[in-house]
Amino acid sequence: MTATEHLDVVIVGAGLSGVGAAYRLRTECPGKSVAILEARDAIGGTWDLFRYPGIRSDSDMFTLGYPFKPWREAKAIADGPSILGYVRDTAAEFGIDRLVRYRTKVVAADFSTETARWTLTVRREEDGVVSESVITCDFLYSCAGYYDYDQGYDPVFAGVESFRGEVVRPQFWPDDLDYAGKRVVVVGSGATAVTLVPAMAETAAHVTMLQRSPTWIGVVPGRDKLADKVRELLPAHAAHRLIRTKNILFGLAFYQFCRRWPKAARKVLTKLSAKVLQDDDAVREHFTPTYDPWDQRLCAIPDADLFRALKKGRASVVTDHIDTFTPDGVRLKSGRVLEADVVVTATGLRLLAFGGIAPSVDGRAVELSEQFIWRGAMITGLPNFAVCVGYTNASWTLRADLTSRLVCRVVNHMDRRGYASVVPTPDRPLARRPLLDLASGYIQRAVDAFPRQGDRGPWRVRQNYVLDAVSTLRGDLSRQLVGTPRAAVRRPTPTARVR
């Protein structure tokens, strides 16, 4: 009989978060056996999957990048291939690529309170042959993000089957799509749409961004001149820390400004757009939302590339609703027809908790919507489990790295206290609030599939890196973590271990 492999920690996902998590576990929990299970066949996650024109970060790379790996390229707002190269270089430099098991998808995860271990059913595909096996681990850490990478949000459009052109979804961009000299309509107004429009406008005959309602847009420089100067004067790691700190504080200050003084924030953003676009009527109609800044995520356009495409006449914006597709394009509620050869549906993503893993305890499914999240990472009712959820108002990696360091603290805390398992438990009832507190449609559609945040202390998911850094790295772990001593659980017979 083949022994079941056992690991100390299993990380799910080899993207930006998973690579950072593995680095932290190897450096802060030396001696622990760690593996990364990756469902796809490459490192990179989002930055390997999405291939649409112009794909880039909407956060600066000094904060989206790892604090332990300086960003050395010129662009502060980087393109997708550069970010993918950065993630893979980091994995190779620190030996993290050797921990990854590709084409290995977790299809079931059950925690046993008797043995204080997770049993993972994993499905692996090799040369077209699919097989299943079992791995056990002491701690399970989901770094798969919260998007469904197999299926995007796909609203039903009347008459789409009659359209003679091509309908394209950004999440599954065809490698052979030729849109040069063609008329393109991009449906949407979020980060994907504002990226696609100027990129496609470089070769398309014309690109129209069709939006139901405006989105707040912030013009940001593609390069950080101050960062360039600092990097000339200081060693790489020192410069990276200084620039990172500067950008964290600026981002936090701007977010707080928007939330505390929304009227003033609206004026700042509209004036900046009008200054660049030089068309007050267009700003009023197409770039002034009814909601306040940061009620939904703000879209960044580096070097005003979207506005420049509009000013050159290579692109345009239409604010209206789709009535129906026609053979030659899209007819709007107003009666206007947008002729198109290609329609891109940048209508958003679908959220999916824990990469699709439905965790259970002792064979019973845990209803996630009834649980609370502790310090933005661990979840009531799920022992020895953590999930990586980034910020909505700042770079994903800022919270991802804090969460990974928290996981390391928890693992070391368990060793010091002699605990086989720990689970966060509130000392009194909590008021229930959505985990992701944004009004965006893609969040509202999936809110019931995720655990909740509470109304106080470590049960609140704050959007404040400075406060989170203090509480995560120094906060008392014993107050809300209920531990089970190793002596109180039954360990199975020794199994194969990999270090």
Give a nutshell description of this structure:
This protein is of the alpha/beta class. It is built from 13 helices and 24 strands.
What descriptors fit this protein?
13 helices; FAD/NAD(P)-binding domain; N,N-dimethylaniline monooxygenase activity; alpha/beta; NADP; FAD-binding_MO; ten-stranded mixed β-sheet; FAD; 24 strands; globular; 2 domains; 499 residues
The low-pLDDT segments are: none
Assembly state here?
single chain
> Helices and strands: which structural class?
alpha/beta
Mean pLDDT: 91
Morphology call: globular
Estimate percent helicity: 25-40%
CATH architecture of the largest domain: 3-Layer(bba) Sandwich
And the CATH topology of the largest domain?
Answer: FAD/NAD(P)-binding domain
Number of domains: 2
Could you explain how this protein is built, in words?
- The chain is an alpha/beta fold and 499 residues long.
- It folds into 2 domains: 5-150 and 350-497, FAD/NAD(P)-binding domain (3-Layer(bba) Sandwich), CATH 3.50.50.60; 160-345, FAD/NAD(P)-binding domain, CATH 3.50.50.
- The protein has 13 helices and 24 strands.
- The strands form 6 sheets. Strands 1, 2, 3, 4, 5, 6, 17, 18, 21 and 24 form a 10-stranded mixed beta sheet that branches. A 5-stranded parallel beta sheet has the order 7-16-8-9-12. It has a 3-stranded antiparallel beta sheet with strand order 13-14-15, with no helix packed on it.
- A hairpin with a 2-residue loop joins strand 17 (360-361) and strand 18.
- Helix 1 packs parallel to helix 11.
- The chain starts with a strand and ends with a strand.
